[in-house]
Structure formats: structure tokens, C-alpha cells
Amino acid sequence: MAGLTAWVLGDQLSHDNPVLDGADRVLVVESAARLRSRPHHRQRAHLYLVAMRSFAAELAERGFEVDYRRADSLAAGVRAHRRRHRPDRLVVLSPSSRGARRGVERIAGVDIADGTLFLTSTEQFAQWAEGRKRLVMESFYRDQRRRLDVLMDGDDPAGGSWNFDAANRRTPPRGTRPPKPYRPRENRIDSEVRRDLDRMRLPSYGCDGPRLWPATGEQARRSLRRFVADRLPGFGPWQDAMLQGERFMWHAHLSPALNLGLLDPMECVEAAERAYREGDAPIESVEGFIRQLIGWREYVHGMHWLSGRERGRRNALRAHRDLPAALWSGETGMRCIADAVGGLRATAYAHHIERLMLFGNLMLLLGCEPDACLDWFRDSFIDGNEWVMDANVLGMATYADGGGVMTKPYAASGRYVDRMSDHCAECRYDPKARTGEDACPFSALYWDFLARNRKRLGDNHRMALAYENLDRIGGDELAAIRARARSARRELSA
């Protein structure tokens, strides 16, 4: 045998993958080394294997010769394929992350084709970034709108504004619950994968299924249609709200499918814009959703490749504490953290405000070591790809990059959680108190964080008001706040 082999990685499961054009056969490799590398959430491992095996079956139905290999490593799978098929050429689409790219480059004789799973190439992002003093996402997003001609009325933004964020910060609705998202049906491949994972006895986190996430392109498109019809209209106003026991709120539930290559991002953008143009969804919701797709998603991918810095070198706030045990167990009196961790264990998911203002905020205020935070996010979430979490965790959540992504730390007290959720009403802690045993840990830790990092953050003009408020706190009260912060750390790590 000879000819061209198209090697498809586990997050490149698109039938529009250009390496498939003219291929004589397709190689897909399940790597035991990658599965065993870290204790990933059980549902994440399950989804990836079901999606890969389903995609291979679809390719076979289309008439491709598919070599599906279960190997000790990606390199071992490639070697075995070459011994069997002796291809003249083996080509793979450029991986989405730097780590995966380095792994592929270490395998001799593999040609790497330009990536097509994002709307902005790494070269385009680098060109946009060149010569700018600050790489502000909002500026990038507006340029994306113009370049891609999305939500534009001629030269002007649809609805008369580029950004409707101010209208999308409503507190949780009373008496209203979001519509349920699409849930796929499991099949024999799910059962096979579950048996295989049980036999492998992998280190894992969280609960097993049933599978909540699309594993095929058809399922992903059904999920998209359900979101646009049922939850997109309410997405904007309540995208930052949290409700006890509600895991998905009005969010799209589509990030795993996008990250696997099952959905094209422009397909999602066009569906949302069509809903706005036809009067089925308000501009505030549609703009907010599209901003996440062509703005934030493309921005964090571009920043991941642009930074080029290795892990372990980004710790601007000199944070070195261990992660609290409560982030794994959920055993804490903080009702918001207990609920969010419980949801994460059950579904491998938390929406963006829980990630940033509960998990990320807690890590930031405690002073947790950034690389440990990054590993926790990557291991715990269904969509925890390296390129996703790099900028989100090191840049946005923990401010480890010192302002490369955000102009100030996303630090907040318990008052924010009280405003944007229904958690605090029945919590044992008081979000308005910052001293004493009943003070919310978020509130005490917030002021302790400001005091601890004054030398590093005091000159940041966006922190000026926070430090003015800190200066109004007397010495005795500040000492009591810092004592409460110390006890909160013990409580969370017990």
C-alpha cells in the first residue's frame, strides 16, 4: 500500500477537515498515554472517545478506509499505521494548542496543514496584534464584526451599538426557570466506551454519565437549533446570573461540540444572526452570544498562540498557596461554591460566571498557585482544552500574566455573589459582613487580597476606587478582616 493518509486528531472531527480531501485512508488514534496523563473528568474522557469512534464510523459510511488504532501513544499509533499501510505521505491539520503541536512535530515525517477550525488564523491574529500597546478584546471583536460582516448594517453595528453588555447583567429572575437544553440519546458506542474506561481504571474526577453532550455533528446541530429557539432569547439578560441547582441557565451548551470540531463557529453565528433578523431573538442576546464566538473564543485562541511563554513563568501576584480541598469535594458552608462544585462533578460543566466569579475569584483571593489553578480547570471541565484555559485562567481568572489579557484583576466580594445569584439567602455566611465567624469568606478574602497586593496593584488606575475604600477601613477592623480571611482559608481546606 501507499498513497496519502489523513491523520485526524480527537478535536478535529469535522467532515470539512481539508486533510480528508484526496486521502486514500484516514488514521484516528486513541492514545492511552493522553488518557492517563491527568485525572480528567470522567465525562470528558467519555465524550472524546465516543465522538472519535462515532466520527470514524461516519467516515467509513462515506467510503473512507479508516485505520482506527488504540495505542500507547499518538507516536506509537502512527508507527503502527506506517508499518501496516506504508503511506507515501501522512498529513494532519495543525493542532489547536501549542502542546499538541509540539507533540505532533516530534513525530518525524508528518506534514502539518494549516488549521481551519477557527475563523481567525494565528497569522491573522498576530497581524492584528502587531504594534498595539494593549491587546484589548473589545477592539479585536469590533474588527472581527467588520471583517466577517457579522451583525452589521452597512458600516454600522446592528441595533446601533457594538456592545450591549450593560443590558445583560440582570439579577436572577424570580419564578422563572430556563428551558432545558437538548440532551442526546446514548447508543452502543457509549456503552462500549464506558466498559473500556472501566477496564482501564483511569484516574478520574466527577460522576459518570449519562452523556449530556453532543458527540456527532448531527447531535451538535440539533443542540444548536434547540438553543436558538428556546434559550437564545433569554441568554442576554441573564447570562451573568446564577440559580441554585440550575447547571446551564440560558447558556448555549455548545462549547464542547465547537472544540471537538463537530460544529463550525460561523454556523452558530449565522443561526443567531438569522434569529435576530427574523425577530425571534433580541439584539442584546444575539450580540452577547456572537461576541463570545467571534470575539472571546477567537481572542483567547489567538492569545494562546501569540504569548509563546511556557507555563510556570506567569505569576505576577506571587501566589503560591495550594488549592483548597473544597474545590474537589464541595464540602464547604459556602452555598455558592458547594452548589457549583456539585454541578461540576455531576456534569463536567459550569457556565462562565461561575467559572470566573466563583471558582476563579476564590482562587485569586486565596492566592492559589496559577499553574495548579490551570490544571484544575483543564482537568475538571468538559471543554477544558489547553488553548481555552490558558488565557482564561492565567490571564483572566488569576491575573497571573499581570495584565496581558485583563486590565485589572477580576476580584469581588460576597456582595457581587449576592447580587447575581440566589445562593446567599439561605447561606450560613453573611455577604455584607467582612469580620466575625459569620462573615462571607469572599468578603473577608476580598479586602485581605487588596491589602496583601497593594504594592503590585495600587498603581493600577482601575483599582483606585477599591483602594480608596480600603483606606477607609480602620486598622483594628482590617486586622479583624485578615483574621477572618485566615480562618476562611482553614475552613475551605479542611
Give a verbal description of the structure:
With 494 residues, the chain is α/β, with parallel strands linked by helices. The chain has 3 domains: 4-113, 3-Layer(aba) Sandwich (Rossmann fold), CATH 3.40.50.620; 122-307, Serine Threonine Protein Phosphatase 5, Tetratricopeptide repeat, CATH 1.25.40; 326-493, DNA Cyclobutane Dipyrimidine Photolyase, subunit A, domain 3. Helix content is 50%, strand content 6%. The chain has 21 helices and 7 strands. It has helices at residues 32-36, 42-61, 74-85, 98-105, 122-129, 137-148, 188-200, 217-235, 255-260, 265-277, 283-307, 326-329, 335-347, 352-366, 370-380, 386-397, 414-420, 441-452, 454-457, 464-471, 475-493, and strands at residues 4-7, 25-31, 66-71, 89-93, 110-113, 152-153, 156-157. Strands 3-2-1-4-5 form a 5-stranded parallel beta sheet, sandwiched between helices. β6 (152-153) and β7 form a beta hairpin. α2 packs across α7, α6 (137-148) crosses α11 (283-307) and α18 (441-452) crosses α21. The longest helix is centred in the middle third of the chain and has 25 residues, at 283-307. The protein is globular, with a radius of gyration of 23 Å. The mean pLDDT is 94.
Could you outline the blueprint of secondary structure elements for this entry?
Blueprint: E1 4-7, E2 25-31, H1 32-36, H2 42-61, E3 66-71, H3 74-85, E4 89-93, H4 98-105, E5 110-113, H5 122-129, H6 137-148, E6 152-153, E7 156-157, H7 188-200, H8 217-235, H9 255-260, H10 265-277, H11 283-307, H12 326-329, H13 335-347, H14 352-366, H15 370-380, H16 386-397, H17 414-420, H18 441-452, H19 454-457, H20 464-471, H21 475-493
